[in-house]
Design goal:
six-stranded antiparallel sheet, mainly beta, nine-stranded antiparallel sheet, Beta-galactosidase, Chain A, domain 5, 4% helix, 304 residues, 2 helices
């Protein structure tokens, strides 16, 4: 069982968010009281999942940095090459497996910070400061991400979030009834393990969570940077909005099987294997002393 002290944020309407700073700044829960349902969990989480950390993190909303998904280089999985040097890097980066520090805390907000250490520099030779602020406002959960390059050289990275939404939201419904409202976009298909990709139109549609996305559905250029997970049986929906995160141009939809109690809607700044495809300009190349910012929010509510 991991050693951690969770921080609980509580809004005036009874909404709550639970974050584990020591477990990768992991947002474990976001829940909101809804008439006729009581307190409803928007994110899938359980103590059994937490107990498997860091081996598994199929819950909450892990932070992905400085890599999203995988990268392979020079015939080695979980490695990337930069400036002629080969470096190891685990799936989705090291941020979700690192201890974050609490910088500021109120009843409704929490600011966490991750900075480079000897351990991070062994795999990622850059000095950085990464802050995330979670904030509850009228039942809606906002968060802001700020990455500062403290190195004397350009710092490459990709970043994203990996929320595991609960499906269904309540026992009054069934998983098979749930769907995602997806705006018009482009479907991205990877080739040769991400060495290249092709794009084709993806019309706006209601995408059933029963569709098999074990190999991940990648989308780009959403007409509106927002996804809505709808549970008609419970008459509830979760809105995930990232219009204030313009560099999160890609979305990954994933779940292990169509029977899992979760469904992932993941905004990323890059596709898999982005370091190997550096010429595609998916990587963020942050100048010395420059700052990257992104903001998102999610809200559980009655269906509109």
């Amino acid at each position: 069982m991991p050693d951690y002290t969770p921080v609980t944020l509580t809004d005036a309407d009874g909404s709550l968010a639970v974050i584990a700073p020591q477990l990768g700044g992991w947002l474990l829960r976001y829940a909101r009281p809804v008439a006729g349902h009581g307190l409803v969990e928007a994110l899938h989480c359980s103590q059994a999942v937490i107990d498997r950390y860091p081996r598994e993190m199929y819950a909450g909303n892990p932070v992905l940095f400085p890599l999203v998904s995988y990268n392979h280089a020079q015939g080695k999985d979980h490695h990337y090459e930069w400036n002629g040097q080969l470096h190891p890097m685990p799936q989705h980066g090291f941020a979700r497996r690192s201890k974050w520090s609490v910088v500021e805390q109120t009843a409704v907000s929490l600011t966490l910070e991750l900075t480079d250490t000897e351990a991070t520099r062994a795999a990622y030779p850059f000095a950085f400061c990464h802050r995330i602020t979670y904030r509850l406002v009228n039942g809606r959960l906002h968060w802001e991400q700020v990455v500062e390059n403290r190195s004397p050289e350009v710092m490459p990275f990709a970043t994203g979030f990996h929320p595991y939404f609960a499906v269904p939201f309540t026992p009054k419904s069934e998983r098979a009834a749930c769907f995602v409202e997806i705006p018009e976009a482009k479907r991205m298909t990877l080739h040769d393990r991400g060495a290249s990709f092709t794009a084709k139109p993806f019309p706006a549609q209601n995408w059933s969570v029963q569709e098999d996305v074990a190999d991940t559905l990648f989308l780009a250029g959403l007409k509106k940077p927002e996804l809505v997970l709808v549970d008609p049986g419970s008459e509830l929906e979760a809105i995930f909005n990232f219009e204030d995160a313009p560099q999160h141009r890609f979305v990954a939809l994933w779940t292990k099987t169509p029977e899992e109690p979760f469904y992932c809607l993941e905004p990323w700044t890059a596709l898999p294997n982005a370091f190997t495809r550096a010429k595609e300009r998916e990587l963020i190349l942050l100048d010395p002393r420059a700052t990257f910012r992104a903001a998102m929010w999610m809200e559980l509510r009655k269906m509109a």
